[in-house]
Predict the structure of Coiled-coil domain-containing protein 167.
Amino acid sequence: MSENDTIMTKILHVEDALKESLHRVEIIERRLRTKLLTTENRERLENELEEVKEVLKKNEEKLHDLRRENTKSYMVAACLVFICFLVYGVYCMFNTKEVSKKFVNKL
């Protein structure tokens, strides 16, 4: 990931890494269920499983943080839209009174 990636792009990258890690965990667990492993291979797979689980946990935390950041971005955009409608409503409210006064005075 580069610095110029958008939040959504970063989220997609992290989700892909999560999928790969989950797939790797499934493969390792499936291998560990077989009884034909030597103790050396079993220990190696168990260590690898722990490492993959750590990576998985870090990626889940990163994904959670990115989603929170993404929510903040949407909240800022929603607030800006709300402020625009509020300013427009106030403008229409005051502008309508002046137009109404001019219209009533002409009659």
